[in-house]
TrEMBL record:
<keyword id="KW-0443">Lipid metabolism</keyword>
<feature type="transmembrane region" description="Helical">
    <location>
        <begin position="166"/>
        <end position="189"/>
    </location>
</feature>
<keyword id="KW-0813">Transport</keyword>
<comment type="similarity">
    <text>Belongs to the ARV1 family.</text>
</comment>
<dbReference type="GO" id="GO:0006665">
    <property type="term" value="P:sphingolipid metabolic process"/>
</dbReference>
<dbReference type="Pfam" id="PF04161">
    <property type="entry name" value="Arv1"/>
</dbReference>
<keyword id="KW-1133">Transmembrane helix</keyword>
<dbReference type="GO" id="GO:0032366">
    <property type="term" value="P:intracellular sterol transport"/>
</dbReference>
<dbReference type="GO" id="GO:0016125">
    <property type="term" value="P:sterol metabolic process"/>
</dbReference>
<dbReference type="GO" id="GO:0032541">
    <property type="term" value="C:cortical endoplasmic reticulum"/>
</dbReference>
<dbReference type="GO" id="GO:0005789">
    <property type="term" value="C:endoplasmic reticulum membrane"/>
</dbReference>
<comment type="function">
    <text>Mediator of sterol homeostasis involved in sterol uptake, trafficking and distribution into membranes.</text>
</comment>
<keyword id="KW-0445">Lipid transport</keyword>
<dbReference type="GO" id="GO:0097036">
    <property type="term" value="P:regulation of plasma membrane sterol distribution"/>
</dbReference>
<keyword id="KW-0472">Membrane</keyword>
<keyword id="KW-0256">Endoplasmic reticulum</keyword>
<dbReference type="InterPro" id="IPR007290">
    <property type="entry name" value="Arv1"/>
</dbReference>
Length: 249
């Protein structure tokens, strides 16, 4: 069959790897392989020793199907993406999402300003406003993540003992902010619907963050929401700080 289809997101995993290199998408158990290659194009998905189900059924799925399952916040799709693929776009994705958010805030700021003076100084000020919005959005997201890490470290310190655990959770959180890409159509569509769109996108991103934390640390459904709530408190604290400084955020 087609290699791209068999490997989900177009990443061909090694047939054999060290113990714990992969995870079963059903029970989160460790696995040494995702499939076994019998040559001549014959591949067989490995069976999990713990739950007796296929380790990763998504290696046979089309990337579009995987994306739809991820949008539906299915834990199996998250485990496939986080543990069984070699995706390394979290940094670029985060910057792009922040740019989208900064542009939307900047656009709303320009709509509230009735100054149409074409003077170069005014254009420079508007450009600086965009950079300021990007900086504020970055600080807010950083505060949100810091709040999550503090809460998780306080509630489950044994889960974040190693540096690799912090890095994996950070990557998961960055990838789970992909919902902010919906800000692009929010900008294109009528501005009368922008507040409703922003609220919907915010809720969707928070749900994605919760699922990413739950899958990465193998927690129940309640603890991730406690961590997110603490992250929101810290983020809102940063917003209040900027508002007291007289900045539009």
């Amino acid at each position: 069959g087609d290699v791209e289809a068999l490997t989900g997101l177009g990443v061909l995993p090694c047939p054999m790897a060290a113990l714990g290199a992969y995870r079963c998408i059903e029970c989160n158990g460790e696995a040494t392989e995702l499939y076994r290659d019998y040559q001549r194009g014959v591949l067989r998905i490995s069976i999990c020793k713990s739950c007796q189900k296929p380790v990763d059924k998504y290696i046979e799925y089309d990337p579009v199907i995987i994306l739809i399952n991820a949008v539906l916040c299915k834990a199996q799709a998250y485990r496939h993406i986080l543990f069984n693929t070699k995706i390394n776009i979290h940094g670029k994705l985060c910057i792009f999402c922040l740019l989208c958010e900064a542009y939307l805030r900047w656009l709303q700021l320009q709509d509230s300003s009735q100054n149409t003076d074409p003077d170069d100084l005014i254009r420079y000020a508007k450009e600086w406003d965009f950079y300021r919005m990007f900086g504020i959005a970055s600080l807010e997201q950083t505060s949100f993540f810091i709040g999550i890490f503090i809460a998780l470290w306080w509630m489950t310190p044994e889960m974040l003992k190693r540096k690799s655990d912090f890095i994996l959770l950070l990557k998961a959180l960055l990838l789970s902010t992909y919902g902010k890409l919906l800000l692009i159509p929010a900008v294109i569509w009528e501005h009368d619907y922008t507040p409703l769109c922003l609220a919907f996108i915010k809720v969707f991103v928070l749900i994605s963050n919760s699922q990413a934390i739950r899958v990465t640390l193998n927690l129940n459904r309640i603890l991730p929401w406690f961590a997110i709530f603490f992250g929101l408190i810290l983020e809102n604290g940063v917003v209040c700080f900027f508002q007291k400084m007289g900045w539009d955020v």
